[in-house]
Design goal:
The complex is a heterodimer.
Chain A (H helix, E strand, L loop, with lengths): L8 E5 L4 E6 L9 E6 L6 E6 L4 E2 L4 E4 L5 E6 L8 E7 L13 E6 L1
Parallel strand pairs in A: 1-9
Antiparallel strand pairs in A: 2-7, 3-4, 3-8, 5-6, 6-7, 8-9
Chain B lengths: L3 E4 L2 E4 L5 E7 L5 E7 L5 E8 L2 E5 L6 E7 L2 E6 L8 E8 L12 E2 L3 E5 L1
Parallel strand pairs in B: 2-11
Antiparallel strand pairs in B: 1-3, 3-8, 4-5, 4-9, 5-6, 7-8, 9-10, 9-11
Classes of the chains: A mainly beta, B mainly beta.
Chain lengths: 110, 117
């Protein structure tokens, strides 16, 4: 079972920041938080991952709380092409297994 | 260049038939996977292979048999297809992440939509 909970859906205006929350209250100290997204039934696409520190790449920023029980994915300037289902995943340590939950359906509107 | 490619993209077949889905990756990764996404859009891992060795088998019926002729290919053969096998099947690859702390970004193919009638 997925160890994360996310809101079912969110809306965001184009050009604004999209902040997608994720709860992972049972996360262990050696488990990473990964974010993927799936655009309209295409294959899932990796976005970002982190362990303790906040992370930023060309796609997004990941903010992890100090107690690591929750995190937020930030898309700084959402575009219509960012409309997708966003999955927050806690990676099982010592395996390559990604356990997907139900994700958050982000709708970016003009 | 497509990193992870699957064929066919669509597959419609009758119950009871045997079919195969092929997957190839050109990323030099040593680990490959099959995931299934059902009609409720729930994505679940089925198998993973590392250097042609089966690592994960998630209680999948033995009608499903993955085959990895080399580390760049992982094919999925399904015997005696059933209606419930209808789904989108995704192949993926990554570098081995079983070592703690290793980065394991997984790359997914575009999926194969299997419809059993």
């Amino acid at each position: 079972d997925a160890k994360t909970t996310q809101p079912t859906s969110m809306d965001c205006a184009e050009g604004r920041a999209a902040n997608l929350p994720c709860n992972h209250s049972t996360i262990s100290g050696n488990e990473y938080v990964y974010w993927y997204r799936q655009i309209h039934s295409q294959g899932p696409q990796y976005i970002i991952h982190g362990l303790k520190n906040n992370e930023t790449n060309e796609m997004a920023s990941l903010i992890i709380t100090e107690d690591r029980k929750s995190s937020t994915l930030i898309l700084p300037h959402a575009t219509l092409r960012d409309t997708a289902v966003y999955y927050c995943i806690v990676r099982v340590p010592y395996t390559d297994k990604l356990i997907f939950g139900t994700g958050t359906r982000l709708q970016v509107f003009p | 260049d497509t990193a992870v490619s699957q064929t066919p993209k669509y597959l419609v077949t009758q119950m009871g038939n045997d079919k195969s889905i092929k997957c190839e990756q050109n990323l030099g990764h040593d680990t490959m996977y099959w995931y299934k996404q059902d009609s409720k859009k729930f994505l679940k891992i089925m198998f993973s292979y590392n250097n042609k060795e089966l690592i994960i088998n998630e209680t999948v019926p033995n009608r499903f048999s993955p085959k990895s002729p080399d580390k760049a290919h992982l094919n999925l053969h399904i015997n005696s297809l059933e209606l419930g096998d209808s789904a989108v099947y995704f192949c993926a690859s990554s570098q081995e992440g079983r070592r703690q702390g290793a980065d394991t970004e997984a790359f997914f193919g575009q999926g194969t939509r299997l419809t059993v009638v």
